[in-house]
Amino acid sequence: MQEIPTKAQILQWIADNPGLSAKRDIAKAFGIKGAARIDLKRLLRELEDEGAVTKKARTYRDPDTLPPVTLLTALPPDGQGDIFLRPMEWQGAAEDAPRILFLPKKGDPALGPGDRVLARLSKVDLDDYQYEARLIRRLGSNPIKILGIFRTSAEGGRIVPIDKGADKDWIVGRDDTLDARDGELVEAEQHGPKRMGLPRARIVARLGDPMGPKAVSLIAIHQHGIPDRFPDPVLAEAEAAKPAPMDAREDLRDLPLVTIDPSDARDHDDAVFAEPDTDSHNPGGHIVWVAIADVAHYVRPGSALDREARKRGNSTYFPDRVVPMLPDVLSGDLCSLHEGVDRPCLAVRLKLDAEGNKISHRFLRGMMRSAASLTYEEVQQAHDGHPSPRTAPLIPRIIAPLYAAYQAATKARHLRQPLDLDLPERKIILSDEGKVVSVAFRERFDAHRLIEEFMILANVAAAEELTRLKRPLLFRVHEEPSPEKLDALREVAEASGFTLAKGQVLKTAHLNRLLAQAQGTEFDELMNITTLRSMTQAYYHPQNFGHFGLSLRSYAHFTSPIRRYADLIVHRALIAGHGWGKDGLSAQDIEALDETAKLISDAERRSMTAERDTNDRYLAAYLSDRVGSEFTGRISGVQRFGLFVKLDETGADGLIPIREVGREFFHYDEATQTLMGADTGLTLGIGQRVTVRLAEAIPVTGGLTLELLSLDGAALPRSPRAGKKGRFAPRKPGATAARDAKLKRKVIRKRR
């Protein structure tokens, strides 16, 4: 019988012979013939499934190495003027890619940022870079992309970028307009050589009315580079997926687990069930089951689905659409815990005592069948004594025990004292045509809090379980505020008549006492906003630094693998730790945990920014018909250049430029976040009540410009420099910034 090489031997051969990595080359090297080739094929397929090699054009290679000849893109010169190249076919995140130094020889063309080249690589063992590249030929450049509004002219037109930070238009030649119409949203790319003056572009896509249905979120998707189209290999893998078999799973199909979600939810990745604990050693205790969709069964390490999910990091949610982390065939079907359908899951059985403390937990890989897909509203109504024919039969066995377990869990939560901020969330309601109909507060029920509390318990259990198993994972980390931010919070609190103890280890209980002091007073919202601003941003990390906001020593994300890659990593870690299958955390997953943590933390921030920008644009469109109207609000931010105000009615944020506040000089105090007038002593700070006039609303950028009319219900003091007629003449509704500036200059000249 022929001796088959081990996986390690195969990987070593591929690494040593990157130019001879076809299956026949490997077979020849190890003397494998006849029927033994079947075993070799099986080993190669296993290595591919594990992500240890990638297959392309009948050849295999280590995904962490590059072929001898490859396509590369030139990066901008570094501080020493060296040109580094990025591999175009790199499957992982950009920060994972090896550094490649370009070594030009005499006669090679100079490379600029974005130039694409075919080059021969030589591997080197250096700290600063891993490859040296010699040019074979230059292929062209990857042009800069622009998203903006097209304005026609006799020579063709111009593109006005939608990015608030853009400071110049782009010229479009007559032959490069793609027949775009004036006012259309377009995507363009840099075209032609760089010359003095405005840059030139050619339109590559017409996206229609910038305020048309679904165009608002499309702007954010393009602007922030959120991947919204799945590559063909990813879709092919998803389409080929089949329902998971029972295999060695535990059968949970008789357990009446239910999903509880918003009424417009498309996917259901968590289900719950609770019942009294019959153990005589735990009187008054509860058993809580939390079952989560088994995404790991479908998204295997190193697969096209896995690479795309890691790149996206999470799903991104807009008022009119969702950009999912996984294709809909998985997120909306095979992974989703639909009512009455068998679905694979990872579940945890939590044992709580009568005071809501977790006594123990047990994880398992199972098969479940949701007893009902419920909404928060109908569950709450049933609990409040107004059940529907659909929920009435569920009260004794399902709904009542869930609330009983939740009431116990709130006792433990109260003792733990997580940060208790009260910041109402607003929801933008759209018509079928994509226009904003209204802006309403999202209702918060105990049903919401019930699910949140059980998800937190499951996440804690996952972190503790993997720590016990000594398995690597990604923790959800939230560090305590910096001393500087705490000092700023303390100053705002003292100025408002409250106290925040100093000279002791900060706990969330101290912040909750501060919030309790302000509750019901005129400073209630101020203290909630200021406390929120003092917090650090949560992120993912392989090391455990605790979760300050939740007042937890150990926390990980386990409950949403359909929409968060971090949860998928935790699932794989549990699968590997318990030996539940070959789809657990791979060696490559473990090696890349630091890079993955940074990648998905950045992706989370990218999504949050895109979601916020989209809401800003929708709100600006909603308010554009009310330019000139007066609104009440609170100062939510202070900068040298002006004041940010959150309007009461819509929650929209607008800017009062410093020039609109008064004709005196204003001193900016970064520590206290205040502006103080040099002449009047007028002090402006976060949380103060204001009345403003809407001067300008720009839906394309989401910008709102406001005029300050009164502060804390009183008229603004007049600067001695303003003269008898007061400050500036009021802005005419709808006036442009240019007309406004011209009007101000005229007023100033007259007063002088």
Question: Can you characterise this structure?
Answer:
It is a single chain. This protein is an alpha+beta fold and 752 residues long. It has 17 helices and 34 strands. The strands form ten sheets. The chain has a six-stranded antiparallel β-sheet with strand order 28-27-26-32-33-34. A hairpin with a 5-residue loop joins strand 30 and strand 31. The chain starts with 6 loop residues before the first helix and ends with a helix. Mean pLDDT is 85; it is low at 56-62 and 724-752.
Mean pLDDT: 85
What structural class results from the helix and strand content? alpha+beta
Helix content: 25-40%
Backbone shape: globular
Could you give a short account of the major beta sheet?
6 strands, antiparallel
User: What count of helical segments does DSSP give?
Assistant: 17
Unreliable stretches: 56-62, 724-752
Please state the CA-atom Rg, rounded to the nearest Å.
Answer: 30 Å
Percentage of residues in DSSP E strands: 25-35%
Count of β-strands: 34
How many angstroms separate the termini?
Answer: 103 Å
List keywords for this structure.
single chain; 752 residues; alpha+beta; six-stranded antiparallel beta sheet; five-stranded mixed β-barrel; 17 helices; globular; disordered C terminus; RNase_II/RNase_R
What does the secondary structure layout of this molecule look like, with pairings?
Elements: H1 7-16, H2 23-30, H3 36-49, E1 54-56, E2 59-61, E3 69-74, E4 84-87, E5 100-102, E6 115-123, E7 131-141, E8 145-153, E9 156-161, E10 170-173, E11 185-190, E12 200-208, H4 215-223, H5 232-239, E13 250-251, E14 258-261, E15 270-276, E16 286-293, H6 304-312, E17 316-317, E18 322-323, H7 328-334, E19 342-352, E20 358-369, E21 372-375, H8 376-383, H9 395-416, E22 426-430, E23 436-441, H10 446-468, E24 475-477, H11 483-495, H12 508-518, H13 524-534, E25 539-541, H14 565-578, H15 587-591, H16 593-623, E26 630-639, E27 642-647, E28 653-657, E29 666-669, E30 674-677, E31 683-685, E32 689-698, E33 703-711, E34 714-715, H17 737-751
Helix pairs in contact: 4-16, 9-10, 10-14, 11-13, 12-13
